[in-house]
Amino acid sequence: MYSSIVSCSGSESDVRRTAWLRAELWADRLSILCFGVLALVMLATLPDYGLTYDEEPHVRLGERVLEFYTGGFIRSGGLTRSVYGAGFDLGAALLRRLSPWDEYRTNHIACVFVAQVGLLGTWKLGRWLAGPVGGLSALLFLVLTPVYYGHQFNNPKDIPFATGYVWGLYAIARLITAAQAAAAGAPVNAAQASSDVGSVRSAHGEPSLARDWPRWLGLALVLGLAMSVRIAGGVLIAYLALFLVLLGLDFLRLGQTAAGWRWLRSALLPLGLALLASWVVMLVFWPGALANPLQKPADAFGTLARFTAYDSPTLLRGKHISSNHVPWDYLPTYFALQLPELTSAAFLASVLGLCVRTVQCLRRRLPIAWCWWLLVVAVSLPPAYAIVRHSTLYNGLRHFLFLMPPISVLAGAGFALLLRRLVRDRPRWVAVPALLFALFTLDQVGTLWRLHPHQHVSFNRLSGGAAAAVDRYETEYYGSVYQELHARLIEEVWTQHRETYLNRTFLVAGCGSKLFFTRNLPLNFQYLTMRDAGGADYFASYVRDDCLLRFRNRPLVTQVERDGAVLALARDMKARARPKAAPP
Amino acid sequence: MTASSSALPSAASERRLTRWITALALLPTPLWFLLAVARDPGPVWRAEYYGGLDFSGPKVTVTERRSSRYWDRQNAQVPGGFGPRRFSARFDTCLRLKQAREIPFQLVASGLASFSIDGQEQLRLDSKEREARGAVATLAPGMHHLSLDFSGRGWPSIALNASFDGKAPVAIPAPANVAGVEWFPPRPGPAPCGE
Fold it and tell me: At what angle are helices A404-425 and A14-45 packed, to 10 degrees?
């Protein structure tokens, strides 16, 4: 695939090739270092991440599914109505049976583990397309995207789905590669394939397709698990079908029909069985669909694609708009503003390069890089569908976080291609992109550090950063900031009013879920709804829905601020209101 | 594009590398979790729930991790299946101090609640609304028996908060370890903390 992009022109000197192999060796070593550091950092900082409003329904769903399996297979109403499977939630429910922590902290450790599986999938897909440098770059582009990094700790739906999605793409990419290699009869062994960036790989040295059951089992598992988190994972099956058709057309174009047909015949039965198995895997985690294994998932897909049950105001360019009626550029805008600039640039350059290369391949009757196109389709089709169908959208790009891994892979693989080209053709220039990437890494690590643990509010420099975005876009919509806000409020009240603190309860009102208050505050702080906020002792709220604009005449007790953006604050409701400034 | 085969990694070394990275990426979290499970001292509170409001009727004994419970419409389950508005409960735990400490304790409850240390009542509450009472207790080094008697009213709630590190009191035991402060579940019998 990738080699068909890079290997059409000329030969390299042994010296330059050795230099590239050395770079690949170092890329693998750095990947090891990255994974080790990431594991340590993620585990060490895990307690800093607060609970989010998506977690409670998922905790309940996991418990219901576990009850279904342990309590005589009786479906509750909630289980029957659920439009989501419990691929993640059942695992988390089982973990809770062992865990020494409460349900939310346990959820977070499960989130982190699943996120790490996703990072590994991103690395593997990047490496499959563009060798070790591609793998490392893809991994770094992903973990250095703050909005994705922050969600990895407490998002029980979008991150597990992103993980299933990237592994599904990896499995499909391998199938496409195998088909192209078989059709071309390319005698490339696995070792050469892996070092010869993205060479067309053949089945030489590998078990025959029909007997390669780990591959089919893997495909069934990743597709089934992705669909068990969100039925939209079924789109992976559509990609698979689409690319088999495109491959068939390409075989016709290249005159490889006989070999291609042989491959397809050998793959058809195991592929069919794998798809069937993936459906079974999905149903295991989705008892609500067991009674109606075809209709229920179809209904769920229809419900989610035309989801109108939830209509919340969402911010775009400083205006509150109905989430049921967002303009077409809602998602593109959020992606443009929340992806780091270099990631966007590398992604767009990759797509542009791929287009140019595809035209060349068509002219020269060379195989097309379908694996790369798979990622382009995987990145562009879901948002295009949402735009065309006028889907309900809110919380910025949260529901489309699953696009981040393939975006990072395309960006990383394209970057690796650029480096390789420079090593071959302009070795003196290699230092420029390498230095740029090093600076980008340092800068993004700084951003992750400064925003910790609220990385999900990040906006890139072009947009003016979090400070400029906080009043104009969705930033802290998830409620995780309440953990820090309430910890600060408690300490402030304890420090300022120690005697009264011990002998009275305090009433606290604020926006968002009651759970944010009952879970993050000790029992001597009681939650009041916003309707009764006038009688509260404190008003503590996050930035969502313009909540910070309320009670601005009350004295500030504490606030959570990152990069100049106030994400949440607490006000003293009983203190005397600030006198209004006299008019001049 | 050709390369000298010696410079190329073999398929076996590729697989080995991939396994190493997979292990490095995926093993730390499960291992850390298992370590936490293995090192977990378990719940330190013994909780006896009674079907009656005055510590009478059917009784179930369970263990609990933290001294903070509340019941409401979404969270109405009482151990033993008792009604959330018709039960009483007795909680106790053992605290061992390496040195003498002045500890701010805070009892929070909606209902009738009392908090005792070594059999001596320290704090008492009797209110249908949620209220709080606090006091600073000076405890000698050694083992102490902490107990809570509770009979709820309305939607009941009960918490025993304490501060061992100068910060605001939190439900005990605090999530963070404090040097010289250890918690143990009580033993059955007349000397639950081995007094």
Answer: 150
